[in-house]
Write a structure and sequence with these properties.
Length: 341
Amino acid sequence: MAEKRRFMTLGRHIEEGEREHPGATGDFSGLLSDISIAVKLIWREVNKAGLINILGSANRTNESGDEVKKLDQFANETIRKAMDHQGHLCVMASEESNGLIKIPDRYQKGKYVLVFDPLDGSSNIDANVSIGSIFGIFRRVTPSGPGAVEDCLQPGYKMVAAAYVIYGSSTIFVYCTGEGVHGFTLDPSVGEFLLSHKSMRIPKRGRTYSINEGYYSRWEDGIKEYLRYIKEDDPSTGRPYSSRYIGSLVADFHRNLLYGGIFMYPCDKLHPNGKLRLLYEVAPLAFIVEHAGGRASDGVKRILATKPESLHQRTPVFMGSEEDVMEAERFLSGVAAFEST
Ligand code: P6P
């Protein structure tokens, strides 16, 4: 008899996770639940962005020099307001906020730290391309009181949880607390995230690659060699790979997580340290992809082993199917190019 499909909401999944940890105080579960509420509020605005005056630019740029769209400003404020008074956090950091987001003096300080990109890919908002929110959660390292920058500047392997939301043809919340990667699809009719992708695993090898080939002339030779290799016509090895690049990190990442493949944003002459931010974009996704059986590096070093020196530090990134990322790393080290001659 087929197992009766259990009606599993995100909230219940979080609670069941807490019950597996007898010493749990409910603080961590409360934090995850608060995030899910914040993203529902963001979803509501993203879904009607074309109908109200929320499209277009907020006429300012953020710390990283990216133009701020009204929707990402709204998303940033929504997350800040939803998270700053529940007593779970001691400090936050966001792509859209130059410095730390402090917990107001009147509120209790908690033992966790939240880093986030409230709405990644926002340059695609007006074109109605899928966009996303990215979250990383750490335990604080300072003893008590208001959190400090060192609470945020931790290597990704110290994360206790990571999550992303993709606002696309449907809205999916994917999270990992170290015990599997699970995806929940929002059912707008009941306003609940329902379990739709249990224990996600990324294929060990894919057949697609994601990179902005417009920057080809600016790349180092190892990347050019790798691209040439995966484009060679050798069906016995599954090559050539197909190019899939949306230009929206969460959308490109989610597709690779589901089907396999490699996402690359290397250094180039225009982006000497890469474009994507380590703390609140790449590290949370690296946490998720590793827990789904994949790999994430800067081409040489494991992303999760890298301690950020500043909140908005950028990093090159190669992440996705383990065998594809390892193959790319061999080309970057020059070894594979030598072998393939
Ligand atoms: P490029 C969107 O602006 C973003 O931050 C990521 O979502 C995306 O992966 C990347 O930049 C795209 O950058 O240089 O290819 O337009």
